[in-house]
Specification:
Layout lengths: L1 H9 L8 H30 L2 H27 L14 H29 L8 H28 L2 H26 L8 H28 L5 H12 L6 E9 L5 E10 L4 H19 L2 E9 L4 H14 L5 E10 L5 E9 L8 H13 L5 E9 L4
Parallel strand pairs: 2-3, 5-6
Antiparallel strand pairs: 1-2, 4-5
Length: about 375
């Protein structure tokens, strides 16, 4: 298969994990293919004096824009961290994908305009074998190019390559519509190309919309993959002395570039220096193993006080009456005598809006005070940032 041959030829086994090489290869091949199509169509269009083929030639020339954007996007993403961007420039790849997805939308809108124009002002098509063969050639080459991008994308899962693949397949659909209309013109006189084009353009717009939405999502800050969330928690809990975790927050700064923070619960009877060694070791080893930057905050937990544990269990049972409360952590009782502070954090679901938080807290306090009237109850709400 030609795609696999090109990939193996230009990306050696030792560089198979280098995202930039795949991006550069996709951009360069796209530029070369589109320039080649432009040259062939322009020469044939000039010889035959065909406005349609010449116009399609310049359309291929404009398609080099998405390939150039792809190269620029991967080039920006490859830049190392600096003073202004301490976590690197990995999101540049997302921006490139967004630009290409806008190009797909533009193609769809332009095709809507052209199709409506053909419906309002029908033009009788005349079948020409040479023009038809040129269109078939263009369809085949563009289909291969779209498949080549998908092949590259299967190695690195890139929104940018996914967008350029859709851009090529959009050209395949559009050119196929033109070729089919040209072929049908031999047998029917109805100007159906405008109606066919309108249906196809709506399909392209829908695909472009979904592509844009998928590309914007990581820029806005989407939820991390559950596999990564579970891996961080499982790895941390495997360390001796870590009895629980909470408040895991993961930020993505580009493909496979993650910064995460998490709270680790440590028994309060463990000496501080020993607890610090546990946390420090976990930070370094998990960061290296999962290829992330992990910061761990230590939370001491009182596990020896029977009274505190009993009250904690009572509170846990009370919280089960509130479906939007997902979990509780940082439970502690501060003070002496008959009147003490009871403090804990709760994690709530996304169903709880900001304006409803105080109402939920008051309901929980009222329920607790029915059996624990001598406590000043302080509850802090945390959000669940993971799927």
């Amino acid at each position: 298969m030609l795609s696999n041959y090109i990939i193996k030829k230009f990306i050696p086994e030792s560089k198979k994990d280098d995202r930039q090489r795949y991006g550069y290869l996709g951009g360069i091949v796209g530029i070369l293919v589109n320039i080649l199509l432009f040259a062939v169509k322009f020469i044939i269009g000039t010889i035959l004096n065909s406005v349609a083929i010449t116009a399609d030639a310049f359309n291929n020339l404009s398609d080099t824009g998405s390939s150039i954007v792809t190269i620029i996007g991967f080039k920006i993403a490859d830049k190392p961290a600096d003073k202004d961007h301490p976590f690197g420039h990995g999101r540049g790849e997302y921006i490139a994908g967004l630009v290409v997805s806008f190009m797909v939308l533009f193609v769809g809108l332009q095709f809507v305009k052209d199709s409506i124009g053909r419906i309002l002002h029908p033009v009788r098509l005349t079948f020409e074998l040479t023009s038809f063969l040129v269109l078939i050639l263009s369809i085949g080459v563009k289909f291969w190019l779209g498949s080549f991008y998908k092949n590259l994308n299967s190695h690195i899962s890139s929104n940018t390559l996914n967008a350029t693949s859709l851009d090529s397949f959009s050209d395949v659909i559009i050119t196929s519509t033109v070729a089919l209309s040209l072929l049908l013109s031999k047998y029917i006189s109805l100007p159906i190309d405008g109606y066919m084009g309108l249906v196809v353009s709506l399909f392209i717009l829908f695909a472009g919309y979904n592509l844009t939405k998928d590309t914007i999502s990581p820029l806005l800050g989407e939820a991390p993959e559950p596999e990564l969330v579970n891996s961080i928690i499982e790895e941390l809990l495997s360390y001796k002395g870590v009895i629980g975790t909470h408040d895991l927050i993961i930020h993505s700064y580009g493909a496979n570039k993650y910064m995460a923070s998490i709270h680790a619960e440590i028994p309060s009877n463990i000496p501080v220096m020993e607890a610090h060694e546990i946390i420090d070791k976990a930070e370094n080893e998990i960061s290296k193993k999962l290829n992330i930057l992990l910061v761990i905050h230590m939370d001491p937990v009182n596990v020896d006080n029977q009274m505190i544990n009993e009250i904690k269990n009572e509170i846990s049972n009370i919280l089960k009456e509130f479906p939007d409360v997902l979990s509780m952590h940082d439970f502690r009782i501060i003070g002496d005598g008959d009147y003490r502070n009871l403090l804990f954090d709760i994690v709530v679901s996304q169903n709880v809006k900001k304006g409803d938080e105080e109402k939920l807290l008051n309901s929980i306090r009222e329920k607790i005070l029915q059996s624990h009237t001598n406590y000043n109850i302080k509850i802090h709400i945390d959000r669940n940032y993971n799927p």
